[in-house]
Design goal:
The protein is of the alpha/beta class and about 325 residues long. Helices cover about 45% and strands about 15% of the residues.
């Protein structure tokens, strides 16, 4: 039913009305990675990626309908009241190499800036992100029906989760295909250092991508401090932005924000859905997530806020 509404919304050009109604909002798009179109139907491809063709179509739409700004500039202009109408910022979480070899050529083609938030441990080690390891293990049936051999990533300390996965991952790692490795691998430190600093800004996303609420307070502080220090070292730039891993309500708190302030972090993005208007908390910015499920119609509904409205109506009706 929602897809029918999205299509009707787009075909009636109602997105233009939605843009005008919310013209002074900062819309921050949250991507993770981009995959080749031919791989989109593969079971191992996470739903939080987007295809290369979809990403280009989305950039084309933004070029015609939005003012795409670097995130740091957009936040500053939202604060001082000079944000242009239809302002959008593009972000990527985690630090996949595909951000550089698939997404970057399209960003360069359309001259659009993006912020990439790095989980710094994996740029150094080359290891897959922990949630990808768990996903691939589950798809391989390595648990043999035992109850359960893997700890849940989102509700346990990361070190404990990865110890539960260590043996199974060792069996799987050597059997990855070339497509899997190239699509899912993190970028390297050398790739970070060599990236185009005119169109790409790197920032921190914790060191190991642990969900902060699951960790002891000292670990939380270390994760923030180390990731910020690494990104600043690699880029030689201030790197004054941060993205909370997972970033839902309860995943971070006031003490985490204080740790960011002490490091000079000016703004932090979350996984909380929505746009940003004054007044706002610069250390708890909302974003719109983009996935394989976002065709042209769904993308327009997402970025203009229609999806948010429909979800709100749906919650009220079912309350």
């Amino acid at each position: 039913m929602k897809d029918v509404l999205y299509k009707s919304f787009s075909r009636a050009h109602s997105d233009q009305i939605a843009w005008r109604l919310g013209s002074r909002r900062l819309r921050i798009l949250c991507y993770h990675g981009v995959c080749l179109d031919r791989l989109a139907s593969e079971a191992w491809v996470p739903s939080f990626l987007v295809t290369q063709s979809a990403f280009e179509s989305q950039l084309q739409y933004l070029q015609k309908n939005a003012s795409v700004l670097p995130l740091s500039e957009a936040v500053g202009r939202l604060q001082d009241g000079t944000l242009p109408s239809r302002a959008v910022s593009i972000t990527f979480d985690d630090g996949y190499a595909n951000n550089l070899y698939l997404a970057y050529p399209l960003l360069a083609k359309y001259q659009m800036h993006a912020t990439i938030f790095l989980s710094s441990a994996y740029m150094e080690s080359g290891e897959f992100f922990p949630f990808l390891k768990l996903r691939l293990i589950k798809q391989s049936d390595r648990c043999d029906g035992a109850a359960p051999c893997l700890l849940e990533y989102k509700s346990n300390p990361l070190d404990s989760v990865m110890r539960s996965a260590e043996r199974s991952w060792g069996d799987i790692k050597g059997h990855l295909t070339g497509d899997q490795f190239q699509t899912l691998r993190p970028m390297t430190v050398a790739e970070v250092r060599g990236a185009d600093s005119c169109l790409i800004e790197f920032a921190a996303h914790s060191h190991t991508h642990c969900i902060l609420r699951n960790e002891a307070r000292e670990r939380r502080r270390e994760e923030i401090q180390l990731s910020v220090a690494k990104v600043r070292e690699w880029t030689g730039r201030p790197a004054n932005l941060f993205s909370y891993p997972n970033g839902e309500l309860g995943d971070f708190d006031g003490l985490d924000k204080q740790a960011l302030r002490e490091l000079g972090i000016q703004a932090a993005v979350t996984g909380i859905h929505g746009a940003n208007t004054k007044p706002f908390d610069p250390l708890a910015l909302r974003r719109y997530p983009l996935t394989l499920g976002h065709d042209d119609y769904r993308f327009r509904a997402e970025v203009t806020g229609l999806r948010t409205v429909l979800e709100s109506i749906s919650r009220r009706l079912t309350a």
